[in-house]
UniProtKB/TrEMBL annotation:
Keyword Cell division: no
UniProt-annotated stretches for the region Disordered: 273-303
Protein name: Nodulin-like domain-containing protein
Membrane topology annotation: Multi-pass membrane protein
Database matches in Pfam families: NFD4_C, Nodulin-like
InterPro entries: MFS_trans_sf (IPR036259), NFD4_C (IPR056555), Nodulin-like (IPR010658)
Segments forming a coiled coil: none
Amino acid sequence: MASGNVKVKAGTRPPWVGLAAAVWVQMAAGNAYTFPLYSPALKSVLGYDQRQVAMLGVANDVGENFGVVAGVLCNSLPPWLVLLVGAALCFLGFGTLWLAVSGTVLGMPYWLLWIALAIGTNSNASFVTAVLVTNMRNFPLRRGVVAGLLKGYVGLSAALFTQVFSGLLHRSPTALLFLLAAGIPVVCLSTMYYVRPCTPALGGEKEDAMQDGHFAFAQAASVLLGAYLVGTTVLGTVVKLSDAASYALFAVTVLLLLAPLAIPVKMTLFRKKKKPPPMEPPTPEEEPLLIPALDPPPPADEDSDEKVAVLLAEGEGAVVKRKSRRPRRGEDFEFTEVLVKADFWLLWFGYFIGVSTGVTVLNNLAQIGAAAGIADTTILLSLFGLGNFLGRLGGGAISEKFVRSLHLVPRPIWMSLTQAVLAVAYLCLAYGLGPGAVYASAAVIGVCYGAQFAVMIPTTSELFGLKNFGLFYNLMAVANPLGAVIFSEELAGRLYDSEAARQRRHGGGGGGHPHACVGPECFRVAFVVLAACCAVGTAVSLVLAARIRPVYRALYAGGSFRLPNGNQQHRRLRHTF
């Protein structure tokens, strides 16, 4: 495998430099969130109707979440080359859209723009996979924290692009598309050298405590960045900012994005000198005896002896040649092996329920707010986005904390708890408890939705290994667009249109729009169905947690992570780069 020849960077600082570089790549990986910012230009400039724009939205979602190819590439190519592929896709896809919207090339067919948008957003799969896989391998003992931190930055990228679009680009869709086509590849080209495989840090208690402190700093910096972006977004809607003020606010954003780089800088400036072991003076009684025969023989390798015995027996016809055993949970699985594991499909189904119901609310949040009588739905979007970020960040950190506790709480427990909360939130929305309940439900659903990502990612790596983690992660990610089609379009969309048509026939609803629906009845049936699905998802996640608890006892007994098969697994981990 090509990736086996990739040079692994040694030292304690390179993994943190790579993590700081990954922050910028993750912010760039949120380019699919910009579709609502430039989609109005597709209607006004290109003359598309709402149905055509909605179909382009499908291309946006399909491209973002189809990452199987990126997962395969990540197993055979070094991370910088996977990032280079993503940069090329971004330039090609969004560059084509820029040519059409700017009027540089006229008369582009609709199907070509659909494909171009899917290609452009498919760059996210390469960005996220390369960064996530590399950092999970660089920090194998902090998988939950790494997953929550990096996925949290992806969640913040929507607020970053909104700040840039409103403040620096003066709400110009053409300028935004040019930024996506040229600016994002520049960011990736600038950082891809630093996103590289490093020797995993497997230290003692002092090193673990230092890592915990560094990750706590990175998490605090991300929370500060999230609060700052939300604050500047609200400020921009209330007060008209000058160009100088917009550039000053963006400069502070850049400084906050650079904050994780302070970790390797601090490690460079304040290096800890290793003290040499104390030398004891030799005594006459301790004169060395140069008699090699007195040294104890090295311990025999029982596995090797067993293999030799089996081979001899096979040669004599005493036994039939054995097939190599399948990997156990916690070891490295191959693609065909993971597909026949019940644990994989239980995890996939539980994750599918959590993200599918959450993305249904996200895709219909504007209509949900309007049906509840909320005029300005931007606050709902901000609450959901902030909750999404906190759920991703907190889901990884909290599951990491409890999985190392004395009780060894399996991570899927948190999927079951959040889905139980989702069921309650959907019932609150179904029975119309007022605008206040809608605001609270939007924030709660955002938190629970984000937690699904932060729990699924480390669980997948712990059960099925890091060797093919990029592929397995992207197989899990297929649940997102599939759920959007089933629950958002087919369930919620059809029921909403049906209720809107009923209200028009009876002369009610409308709200000034011929296809609008007003009242809790618009989504009531859909929310009840979503609540029932979350109840099923809760049960599935509990079953999975009970099944895999022995795995967590083996991995985390004593409060620290232990790689399966000891040093042999460590050597395998290093060669998977």
